[in-house]
Design a protein that fits this description.
- This protein is of the alpha/beta class and 133 residues long.
- It has one domain: Rossmann fold (3-Layer(aba) Sandwich).
- The chain has a 5-stranded parallel beta sheet with strand order 2-1-3-4-5, with helices on both faces.
- The chain is globular.
- It starts with 6 loop residues before the first strand and ends in a 5-residue tail after the last helix.
């Protein structure tokens, strides 16, 4: 992990799941920004964040498109995105990866897997962009 605390938006609709992931990320040294919907997540994108964990929902693809194709300097188009998808539906996994998610975790997910995959995408993001703060 970097010297600086890494900020991660956690956009999960279910209160208990969102709190569980955010609390565990905080215990592991991250600074989670817990939001209940993708609309709140998109409003936080101009903040300095290092990654986004989003649950598959109605507007997930729109949010990924916003990140990957936004031309405004306020949104980092290379922001690492991990999507949480229901079940083992390969269609959702493929669609999310094609549209720009960096990783997809299918239910049932485990926090330790989320943490490991988050560390991996952040490691790759920081290798690809040296000097990123």
């Amino acid at each position: 992990m970097l010297n600086e605390t890494q900020r991660v938006i956690v956009a999960i609709e279910n209160d208990a799941a969102r709190t569980f992931v955010a609390d565990n990320l905080q215990a592991d040294g991250y600074q989670p920004i817990a939001v209940s919907c993708l609309g709140h997540a998109s409003s936080r994108l101009p903040d300095r964040v290092d990654a986004l964990i989003i649950e598959l929902g109605v507007d997930t693809l729109k949010l990924i498109d916003l990140i990957r194709h936004e031309t405004a300097a306020s949104v980092d188009g290379d922001l690492p995105v991990i999507a949480l998808a229901p079940g083992e539906d390969r269609f959702h996994t493929i669609r999310l990866l094609e549209r720009g998610a960096d990783d997809v975790i299918c239910e049932p997910w485990l926090y330790v897997e989320i943490r490991a995959r988050l560390a991996a995408v952040l490691r790759r993001a920081n290798v690809d962009r040296p000097g990123r703060s």
